[in-house]
């Protein structure tokens, strides 16, 4: 064990000998403060030094009269931690002022000091001191890690309360600043007493370079007779601490008062004061011997050591005298040739390649046979080497995110480098780590972070960012157009802030190109539609006064129209709440000559009381699923028909409005590929919808491999599900009058029954389509689910039937590829872009779901992929209608069936190659059915964070 132990123990009796294998030095590092008071500076002084008294309160610096250096309080260098005084029992009259107080860091895994105004690429000596002094009254000195920049420096093992620990490193600093970070390793609260930085010429210490740093083990001055006689600044212009080692029993001291010159291009510049003293063995026939033990650490188990030995001849020798010696390490030559020190001029031997793996490092210096004089040595420095190959995050990114942190006073673990080391990367950031270039910030999630004020221009300086979520803050002002300069940005979320103005044109353009997904719902003053935006305040107020009644009127008219349409058999003026049970199914919207037979279930829009529901569900015993609406329960009607009961909970974020919307829609539409509503309940505050039971759950579960039977869908099954879903949507678009837009088409809203027949579910967001302008009334709240939302709808706020076509295209791509709409690759990737790129290169096998094991016709696969790409065209005009899609998918299915099952391969009975052939007609004990609704704009935001970590069934939401 070899360390620097510095203490103010004047009563020390015997300094240890080198032979004792310990350089335990008991010394007084006295530094008494004097009057000179300067202002704190966070910059190097005129000689480039930074000297910090950590934990010193106030802003005043002081000058230490023993070394004339000025010490600054640390507030300008660190923005965490708290100041403490050491305990009185550890204060002695000669204790240096900087040891009287410490800064400790009880919070956060990593806390850092930042030393600025350096020169990137130059070499610096950095020194940290730690005197515990029982400042916290716990009597337990801590152990923690210290990093220099992004590289591990040393463990700080504070072994006792009184003895200061001193860590020194010589490193090449890659930036114009360097951080010293204390990392809590779970073994006590990190603290620090002092921090120094000293610039060094690049030529000094050749063993320290851009990829390797030196950590001081010992720096010994041989020859002083006073063990307290430390040499440092101003005697050493670099302010290294040279500690005396006194052992009068083994060594003779020799010294001179004449100045020792440094040779030209001296690699170490040992100061004259150090070189003026030396030792020779007391017994002239003996060697000089000393040793050190390696100090392995958990993060550096076999440290490598380099040593610099400093020699000069202090005596003018007569011509018949010679001093010549060998230097040996562990009995083997360390320096290969006989060595003769020059007179009053520094010389040094050092090793470039570190030595490793010895149990002890024994140095022996012996005279050669020709030598008339014993060996001599003036000083030695021993360092372990550390790797400094970790590269900090791109400096532009660091500046930008640091400015963001400062502007919004981000309250997170934002200390040290944003991305490095990975284990300490800043919460909310995603980074990319390339081998040959610095890490970049690619994702920023500052949602729910209490950000106040306008959107910082620094966001636009995060040049590699792909994903930025600033939702649910109090951001004000407008969205800066500079964000459109971020070429990699694919997702930008401003949902639920107080932004105003319009969406900048640069961003709109990206949305239209399909490269950007912008979310901005819940910003009441933000104009989602560029041209309807007010420019002046007065105008805007007026516009609101006008707009509100218009919107109200439109809304009232729509509701009335819808109600009339639904309840035309009812007394005018009644509401759905008072609808009496009906025996007759409304048929007004079922196409005549119904090509699609009614569901086998005899449907009736029956009204249930809450009591009846209790009976049906056996007191709400079995939960099938859970959604934003509330829970979905399993139940049986009197005739044994299994049903799913969706009960609206009080805490539900699905309002009465959506509940009614779904009830209304389902009351009037019936199609074999739309989930059927059997009845509803509006009993006091209880609201519920009763659906046909879909035992095989959602399509999403099957695609993600969580289907109830564990297996995967065959290509033919997928095609049939696609066709049936398309038929359901086509019915909404064409069979209903006015047409209905589902607005939330996705795998989770396509349910499968025991025969794997597909039905569209969740009509809570469905909107009637206005024939006049072809669009629905624009609202500020976008609905839909991340990854499925039509970019045109997104940009305009106006859904069309083509918005459903777009979402259906995404579902179709999911069926082809087996991948979710957005997945990690490793960054969140849209299935559309991903598939488009591969298909453009003709790579169908690169996108097809490998779980189909190649059991598919490549032509139908191409055709289906092609339909999907057409559906997801950026411009709605280029997308097919659902009617086109149905026709195309019909063709695909026929081709696939012909291939798989021969001419008459009936899909419904399964083909021989169908792994699910035994599945049809099974009475699978369905566990869940999706009749939950899911996607208000608000929920969509939450979904995004999880979307890449598919699968998440709707029931889990
Ligand atoms: C810290 O130092 C003490 C005393 O030398 C030693 O016993 C202990 O093992 C060290 N702790 C670690 C974690 O190395
Ligand atoms: C730094 O020094 C080490 C040891 O001599 C060497 O292996 C490494 O290549 C050097 N790195 C640079 C950047 O010169
Ligand atoms: C060197 O010469 C001096 C006289 O010139 C003599 O006293 C001394 O002993 C000699 N030393 C050696 C080592 O021969
Ligand atoms: C001194 O060291 C050298 C080189 O290791 C060795 O060859 C020689 O025998 C040693 N001489 C004495 C006197 O120890």
From TrEMBL:
Compartments where located: Cell membrane
Q: Per its UniProt record, what Pfam families does this chain match?
A: LRR_8 (PF13855), Malectin_like (PF12819), PK_Tyr_Ser-Thr (PF07714)
Q: Which reaction does it catalyse?
A: L-seryl-[protein] + ATP = O-phospho-L-seryl-[protein] + ADP + H(+); L-threonyl-[protein] + ATP = O-phospho-L-threonyl-[protein] + ADP + H(+)
Q: Residues that bind ATP, according to the entry?
A: 646
One GO CC term, this protein = plasma membrane
Q: From which residue to which does the signal peptide run?
A: 1-35
Q: Does the keyword Kinase apply?
A: yes
Chain ranges passing through the membrane: 542-567
Entry GO MF terms:
ATP binding; protein serine/threonine kinase activity
Q: Identify the SMART domains for this entry.
A: S_TKc
Q: What range(s) does the Protein kinase domain occupy?
A: 618-893
User: What are the boundaries of the region Disordered?
Assistant: 577-597, 911-957
InterPro entries, per this entry?
Kinase-like_dom_sf, Leu-rich_rpt, LRR_dom_sf, Malectin-like_Carb-bd_dom, Prot_kinase_dom, Protein_kinase_ATP_BS, Ser-Thr/Tyr_kinase_cat_dom, Ser/Thr_kinase_AS
- Positions with biased composition (Polar residues): 911-937
Say where the protein is mainly found.
membrane
Q: Does the keyword Transmembrane helix apply?
A: yes
Q: What's its top-level EC category?
A: transferase
Protein name, as recorded = non-specific serine/threonine protein kinase
Organism classification = Eukaryota, Viridiplantae, Streptophyta, Embryophyta, Tracheophyta
